[in-house]
Amino acid sequence: MRLLFAKSTLLVATILAIGSFILLGYWFVPMTPADTVLIEFENGTSLSQVAQRLEQQGVVRSATALKLLARIRNQSSDIHAGKYRFVEAADPAEILARLVSGDVEQASLTIPEGFNLLQISERVDKQNFGDGKRFLELCSDPQLISSFGISAPTLEGYLFPETYRFTPGIDEKELIRMMVWQLFDRIDKELLSDAEKLGLDRHQLLTLASIIEKETGQAEEMPVISSVFHNRLKRKIPLQTDPTVIYGIKDFDGNLTRKHLSTATPYNTYLIRGLPPGPIASPGLAALQAAARPIKTKFLYFVSRGDGHHVFSSTLTEHNQAVRRYQLKRRD
Fold first, then answer.
1. Which among 199, 180, 182, 202 has a CA at the least distance from the CA of 191?
2. Is 135 within the bounds of a domain?
3. Is residue 1 part of a domain?
4. Tell me, what's the pLDDT at 18?
5. Highest mean predicted confidence (pLDDT) among 29-33, 37-41, 103-107, 110-114
């Protein structure tokens, strides 16, 4: 009788072991969601809650399998909060790896070269990455500005134009920090050293680069335009660049007049000599490099051809001829 009982017990144990093995194997088979699944986990969400939601959404076959694996690997408290996207087939080990590494869904914000602070704040607001008014106020906050080691009334020119990817939910201040530190990464020691050899500190480099950025969208022309401005600065000739005048006009309506050109503002480079007090927009890397590394020319003037490119001249006579050919003809 005892022998029969022992054999029966062994048989039951074996069946249970085989069944458990098969069940565990099934739990760990990769699973493909029926459709794209987006799940957001808040800070403080427990492993059990995470696993249960993933099972309910068809991302894993078993919440128990995911929890078991996390405990075996001692990763139960390593789950990162955020929004996750699940599309392809994955087993619990792959799902856990994503949760632990924080492979969350990221937002994307593109700031084009040549945008000023107002335009950047409007884009932040329009794409729901923050309050535009709050963003603009922070860009004039003395405490925040000084925390970057910047001596300027605003962060105009210091927000690097780039496509930024980040976890949704970051605030306006964090966005600004991201953009300023990106600029500092791009202005390396070598670039700053080249600018200093030309008599430009970091703020002046940004100022000149922002003017170059607004004058042309053609990267290959930027070092030539830079040479014109450097030549004028050396000779103490006013830069006479329209973008700075426009920047100094409150509520500019798009029509630059003779009155505007003759009205004194800190940014009217037809009336002042040298650089204006600060940047007028956010320059890209090509403009920064051009400002610090102009090519050698004798050019003092340039005029738009109307096709995105410019004609450069060394004398006023040549320049006036180019103006008549390209500007006056186009107006007629």
1. 202
2. yes
3. no
4. 47
5. 110-114
Q: Identify the domain boundary among 186, 202, 235.
A: 186
Please report how many Cα atoms fall inside a 13 Å half-sphere around the Cα of residue 294, on the Cβ side: 25
Token pair recorded at residue 314: 């060394």
Whole-angstrom CA distances from 311 to 87, 230, 243, 254, 299 are 53, 17, 18, 24, 10
Lowest-pLDDT range of 37-41, 108-112, 155-159? 37-41
CA distance readout (Å), 231 to 25, 235, 250, 281: 75, 6, 30, 22
pLDDT exceeding 70 applies to what percent of the chain? 90
d(CA 151, CA 143): 11
Alpha helices by DSSP H, listed for the chain, are 2-27, 47-56, 63-72, 92-101, 117-126, 132-138, 142-147, 172-186, 189-197, 202-215, 222-235, 242-247, 258-262, 285-292, 316-322, 329-331
Q: Which of 120, 116, 112, 108 is nearest to 164 (CA)?
A: 108
> For residue 94, what is the domain's CATH number?
3.30.1490.480
Q: Does residue 293 share a domain with residue 193?
A: yes
Contact 223, 294 (CB under 8 A): yes
Domain that holds residue 151: 107-186
Together in a domain, 206 and 272: yes
Residue 10 lies in a domain: no
Q: Which two tokens stand for residue 64?
A: 């128990």
Task: Of 35-49, 178-192, 300-314, give the range with the top mean pLDDT.
Answer: 178-192
Q: Is the pLDDT score of 332 beyond 50?
A: no
Q: Are residues 292 and 206 in the same domain?
A: yes
Rounded CA gap, 56 and 54, in Å? 5
